């Protein structure tokens, strides 16, 4: 290791010490000095990105994450913190993309200790993305309702004016009554549409993990043909070493991705974001 490389490593270790004590400003300074000594130190970029996230310097943290990903496109920590920064900035679509990349990197690398963290963050991102879509949908629906009611009210007003000019009192009353009925009918249509949003919602049984009874995001299959959430079955196997259903010996290498069920779970959750809170 060159002199510059050795100095950079010492500074990085100093930064780690400050980070463990939650002195993020001092840690950021150490990582920055390390990068002066060695501009290609990927770990220093990644660690500085973490500091900057906790210091709420989100744009700068994203820049560091991008520097890491330019060197290693599968760097778990960089995808994870880029996602957290993007979510903090309100960019829910890109945040969800990088949250998924972080989770997939975790699975590919066998980083079981990070599985729960990356999965929970992915769920948070997807739930927030659905909430944003739902707010936009409801706002658009309310705007459409106001527009349609306004159109009908103006049409009824014209009919009433015409009846007032050339018709009898009875004809005018009939026009007003018909107009009020049309308005009431249209309002009822919108009320019934809103009521459908408020009905009790059920999560299908195939979406539920039989160990935790939570919704599944990344189901894997055991040799017995049963599917479980990757995180929960991994923990169960590490502890018990058996299949939860058959009690036959089971290891992590026996677990196979259930891609069809995974796609179905993703589709259901994308269309029914309320299920994240189930």
CA distance, first residue to last residue? 53 Å
Structural class: mainly alpha
Low-confidence stretches: none
Overall tally of structural domains: 3
Mean pLDDT: 91
- The spatial strand order of the largest sheet comes to 2-1-3
* CATH architecture classification name of the largest domain: Alpha Horseshoe
GO molecular function, one term: protein-folding chaperone binding
Keywords: Isomerase, Repeat, Rotamase, Transferase, Ubl conjugation pathway
Organism: Emericellopsis atlantica
Catalytic activity: S-ubiquitinyl-[E2 ubiquitin-conjugating enzyme]-L-cysteine + [acceptor protein]-L-lysine = [E2 ubiquitin-conjugating enzyme]-L-cysteine + N(6)-ubiquitinyl-[acceptor protein]-L-lysine
Protein model, in words:
The chain is mainly alpha-helical. The protein folds into 3 domains: 3-123, Serine Threonine Protein Phosphatase 5, Tetratricopeptide repeat (Alpha Horseshoe); 132-198; 205-277, 2-Layer Sandwich (Herpes Virus-1). Helix content is 70%, strand content 3%. Strands 2-1-3 form a 3-stranded antiparallel beta sheet. The longest helix has 52 residues, at 115-166. It starts with a helix and ends in a 7-residue tail after the last helix. The model has no long low-confidence stretch (mean pLDDT 91). Residues 202-275 form the U-box domain. It catalyses: S-ubiquitinyl-[E2 ubiquitin-conjugating enzyme]-L-cysteine + [acceptor protein]-L-lysine = [E2 ubiquitin-conjugating enzyme]-L-cysteine + N(6)-ubiquitinyl-[acceptor protein]-L-lysine.
């Amino acid at each position: 290791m060159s002199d510059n490389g050795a100095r950079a490593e010492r500074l990085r270790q100093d930064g780690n010490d400050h980070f463990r004590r939650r002195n993020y400003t001092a840690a950021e300074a150490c990582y920055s000095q390390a990068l002066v000594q060695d501009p290609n130190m990927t770990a220093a970029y990644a660690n500085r990105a973490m500091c900057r996230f906790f210091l709420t310097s989100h744009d700068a943290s994203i820049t560091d994450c991008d520097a890491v990903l330019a060197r290693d496109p599968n760097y778990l920590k960089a995808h994870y913190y880029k996602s957290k920064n993007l979510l903090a900035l309100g960019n829910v679509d890109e945040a969800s993309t990088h949250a998924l990349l972080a989770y997939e990197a975790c699975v590919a690398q066998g980083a079981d200790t990070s599985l729960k963290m990356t999965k929970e963050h992915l769920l948070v991102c997807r739930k927030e993305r659905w909430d944003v879509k739902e707010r936009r949908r409801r706002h658009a629906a309310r705007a459409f309702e106001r527009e349609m009611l306004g159109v009908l009210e103006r049409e009824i007003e014209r009919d009433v004016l015409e009846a007032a000019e050339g018709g009898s009192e009875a004809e005018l009353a009939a026009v007003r009554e018909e107009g009020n009925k049309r308005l009431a009918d249209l309002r009822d249509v919108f009320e019934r549409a809103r009521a459908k949003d408020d009905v009790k919602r059920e999560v299908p049984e195939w979406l539920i993990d039989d160990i935790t009874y939570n919704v599944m995001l990344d189901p894997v299959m055991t040799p017995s043909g049963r599917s479980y959430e990757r995180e929960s079955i991994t923990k169960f196997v590490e502890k018990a070493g058996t299949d939860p259903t058959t009690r036959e010996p089971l290891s992590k290498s026996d677990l196979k991705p259930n891609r069809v069920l995974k796609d179905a779970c993703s589709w259901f959750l994308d269309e029914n974001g309320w299920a994240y809170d189930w």
